[in-house]
Fold each of these.
Amino acid sequence: MASNSNTSTSPVASGAKQFALLPKIINGGIAGIIGVSCVFPLDLVKTRLQNQQVGPNGEKMYKSMLDCFKKTYRAEGYFGMYRGSAVNILLITPEKAIKLAANDFFRHHLTTSNGTLPITRQMAAGGLAGLCQIVITTPMELLKIQMQDAGRVAAQAKELGKSMPKVSATSIAMELIRTKGITGLYKGTGATMLRDVSFSVVYFPLFATLNALGPRRDDGSNEAVFWCSFLSGCAAGSMAALAVNPFDVVKTRLQALKKVEGEMQFNGVADCIGKTLKHEGVTAFFKGGLCRMIVIAPLFGIAQMVYFLGVAEAILGMKSGNK
């Protein structure tokens, strides 16, 4: 995520605004919570589609995004569509705070002496920000995926005449810590790093470029009009999401601790890529891609809206740089 300013230029002139971290934390948290609440059912569908493996005779539990949505809603109801959302909502604020603050920090220090920030340095700043956030993202995604995929695993087990015990994010976390220590919560870190770093490398410069193309609010201002920043956030988010979807598929499969009987097990990123390619073909890496684009676009559009409105600044009684 980024502020509404034209981020291809230096933040030095407005350093105080760039490094007001408390508003960034609050705005990031608000944007994350609103975004997660709005799009979580689609994120659940995305997870189940990505974890679904093709059977020996080509059979699939879900034929499409719509089919997965219908079957999940029919079997688990409205609240079933929000399995794992509590974990996301709880951890989304520190994740977004780290991402935003780190991106601003690296952009500030990578700005050239003449006050410009070349595209390569924008990509480096974004990538480093993505690297920093995995300390929160990895356990958050690990626990969320177990909860989101539990219904699919339970449904498959039921067809085989078996039953699966109900689980909670807390019980999963405690079991992992008990058996594997704190490192148990970081299964799939390599794949998470690949996804988040590459996403940030694509998203931040792309948003800055698109945002710079639109009209400014005032003559001589670097601030884009609201609709430009909103659409730039949506477009950059969705395009970056599609570009890194193969890494998201690998991450999701590696972090699924429980598999349906007969499904392949994976030992690391390379093993997952190799087996998936061999048994399902290259199209498997784009499973859930449309879902992910639909999920990510409003998340980043909402983030830009929150920054534009200056929600945190209003709460804190501060003057918003967007007004």
Note: The chain has one domain: 21-51+63-316.
Amino acid sequence: MSHVIKILHTTFGLFGNVFGILLFLAPLITFKRIIMKRSTEKFSGVPYLMSLFNCLFSAWYGLAFVSRNNTLLTVLASIGGGLEAIYVLIFLIFAPKREKLKISGILFVVLSIFSMVALVSVLTLHGNKRKLLCGLAFAITCIMMFGAPLTVMRQVIKSKSVEYMPFFLSLSVFNSSTSWAIYGILGKDPFIIVPNAIGTLLGSVQLILYAIYRDNKGEGKKDEMNGSIETGLGKPQEKKLDCIQNEIQKEKYGSKCII
């Protein structure tokens, strides 16, 4: 690797770390809302599980005995893995019982698969074979992480609202994946290039959707939906109760309520 290429490789790795950390910090707004409302509402915990899954394999793949010149990848993945673990824990605390069981089940599978691959790579494989196994696992989980928001993107198109697809999260996906894709190209590492190129494409689509539906946050519809689904006392029910009370006192107020 020439001197100039090496400098550019390191530079884009640092960019990838900066944008990657911003990507991992982007959900803070979402989790602040979850903690304040003590409910996960309609937010999905799957993207955070997929991110944790990817962080585990990213950190492992970046280790010197697996692949060379990818220490920056391990640094970012270690930071991201810690944050994603916290996000998953918050989801387990505030999610409905059915969602908790779902998240717990997926988390068990994630940790089991990672443990198995890590043990096999250490105990039975060496050199390029070890890199191949860990690289494939890293690339697959990276694609899964970038593909996880597809359900949210479908919801955005269906509802024509970007409320559950935060802008800074989408922007961070695009910036981070683009930086790492260039980093992979400079380092001639297909395991980094392919998944991050896909991430760049999906990040672009998210930004386009946000540009199209940015003026519609669906607040009124959300409040009504949350009231009826989560508490059983949405706005239609509240209005009906108000109507009954008004009917009882209609002689005093001289008016009727229309449902």
Note: DSSP finds twelve helices and no strands in the chain.
